[in-house]
Amino acid sequence: EQKISASPAPSLVYSELNLIKKTCRDFFDEGLEMILCDHYNTYLQLRSFFSENLPEAFKLLKFYDQQTPIFDIFGVEIDIGRAIGKRIDLPSGGYLIIEQTEALTSFDVNTGKFVGKANAQQTILTTNLEATVKVVEQLKIRNLGGIIVIDFIDMEDLKDQEKVYNVFLSELEKDKALTNVLKISELGLVQMTRKRTSESLGRKLLESCPHCEGRGEVKSIQTEVNELLREIIRTSLQTGSKKIRIRVRNDIKDWLFLNGAKALKQISDDYSIEIDFIPSPLTIDLIRKQAFEVEYLSSKEPRTNWEKP
């Protein structure tokens, strides 16, 4: 109010922190060893910001003036790739699979090739303990929020379950976001919520695949071949044409000639049709969604008049 009353109109009385300052404010903690900045003007802005708001961070700020790009020297691009990937490896050989959907985010813990030096239960306990650290780390790195489910490997010993749960809670104390964690269920699941402060890293850096519509899967070649064969029959029956011309992706044509030539000949004989394949611009890289085009020759028109059903 004092600033408003003392400022002439129009004047800026408040503005949100920019991305860099907000990141420094939100992610600063006592374990931080150094803050490097490779842009001099930004470096000066941070010096001023830290001196007024984060004096403990001021002494950690350094200007990076080397020739090698800062992302390369610290492997940031590699870390970004890991942060948007589905698999996170654990120190002993196990791994996490992370799936983010509209409803929730799931962490699936797996032992992988890790068999341990003792018994199976010790292997499971070790893997689950390592997973607790990585799960919390990924929650922060990926900025995950909402409902989160961690599927730990089943533990028969209640003491092991309690140990994993307590270590998980201890790790969560390092997270500034508000969380609510339920006990490990009989199925070995930990259900929790984490307050969402902004979009997750994946939502910011990724977009849904236009070909699989975000499912992460596309039709198999065999499925598309079967659809093509049915479309050939359908076109012949609907149009009465005895000449069918097909534009098809090369991978489908190769599979069809290698594995489906007998079925193709059977259709040709049963329906008394001539089937021609022509070069197609449809490639697996460019148009994964469009597998083929089927055209027919009208018996009432010149041979050059091809039509689509």
Short descriptors:
single chain, 309 residues, alpha/beta, Hypothetical Protein Ychn, Chain: A, four-stranded mixed sheet, 12 helices, 12 strands, extended
Blueprint of the fold:
Blueprint: H1 2-6, H2 19-27, E1 35-37, H3 40-53, H4 55-58, E2 61-63, H5 70-73, H6 76-83, E3 87-89, E4 95-100, E5 105-110, H7 120-142, E6 146-151, H8 158-172, E7 179-181, E8 189-194, H9 201-205, H10 221-239, E9 243-248, H11 250-259, H12 261-270, E10 274-278, E11 292-297, E12 306-307
Parallel strand pairs: 1-2, 5-6, 9-10
Antiparallel strand pairs: 3-4, 4-5, 6-8, 7-8, 9-11, 11-12
Helix pairs in contact: 7-8, 10-11
Query: Count of DSSP helices?
Result: 12
The pLDDT mean sits at 85
Largest β sheet strand count, sense and barrel closure? 6 strands, mixed
Structural class: alpha/beta
Strand proportion: 15-25%
Low-confidence stretches: 284-288
* Overall number of structural domains: 3
Helices and strands, in N-to-C order?
HHEHHEHHEEEHEHEEHHEHHEEE
Shape: extended
If you compute it from the alpha carbons, what radius of gyration comes out, rounded to the nearest whole angstrom? 30 Å
> How much helix is in the residues?
40-55%
